Amino acid sequence: PGVEFTGMLSRTALRRAQLETRVFCYPADVIMYTEGFSAACAEALAAGCLPLLRGEDALPSLYGGACRWIQSDPWTEDFPQQLASQIVDGLDWTGAANPTRESTRARAERWSWAHSQAEMRRVVERVEQRKANGGELSPAFPLEAP
Predict the structure, then answer these.
(1) Are 137 and 130 in contact (CB under 8 A)?
(2) Are 118 and 145 in contact (CB under 8 A)?
(3) pTM for the structure as a whole
(4) CB neighbour list of residue 36: distance below 8 Å, 6 or more residues apart
(5) Residues 68, 98: contact at Cβ < 8 Å?
(6) What is the pLDDT tens value at each position of the chain, 146 positions in all?
(7) How crowded is residue 137: how many other Cβ atoms within 10 Å of its Cβ?
(8) Are 73 and 54 in contact (CB under 8 A)?
(9) CA-to-CA distance for 76 and 122, rounded, in angstroms?
(10) H helical segments located in 25-138
(11) Strand 68-69's sheet: what is its strand order?
């Protein structure tokens, strides 16, 4: 009860749903590195709802203090109840603390499509330049300041 699986939505319907959502819950159950970015999390931040995530893959380094982190083990029998409790707690979030609405919006802006595109272009150009110069390639992540 209270959960609706919508399937594919138009952009307009998706935007409306995101703006009406209070908690974005992403209890990723990964068995290997699978999630590179989670655009859905960035969209949730931009829409002003509280992301509740498991600290898997790159999510902690990308979203850090702009989210709440699921504090239970998904492989335990009582995980569904613990997760439901954390979602209910998230519904009381006012944006004043843990995280603040300002921190969620700032993180969303950091990972906007425009910034992400510019960062990706800069990384590719840097790698091409190093290859052309015969230099060693350094990791492209974490992202350098412009």
Answers:
(1) yes
(2) no
(3) 0.72
(4) 57, 58
(5) yes
(6) 777 778 899 989 988 988 888 999 988 776 766 666 788 888 889 888 999 998 888 888 888 899 999 988 888 999 999 999 999 999 999 999 999 999 998 998 888 888 888 888 888 888 888 888 776 666 555 554 44
(7) 9
(8) no
(9) 43
(10) 39-47, 59-63, 79-91, 101-110, 113-132
(11) 23-26, 50-53, 68-69
CB-side exposure of 141: number of CA atoms within 13 Å?
A: 7
Q: What's the CA gap between 64 and 107, in Å, rounded?
A: 9
Q: Which amino acid is at 107?
A: R
Q: What is the CA radius of gyration of the chain?
A: 18
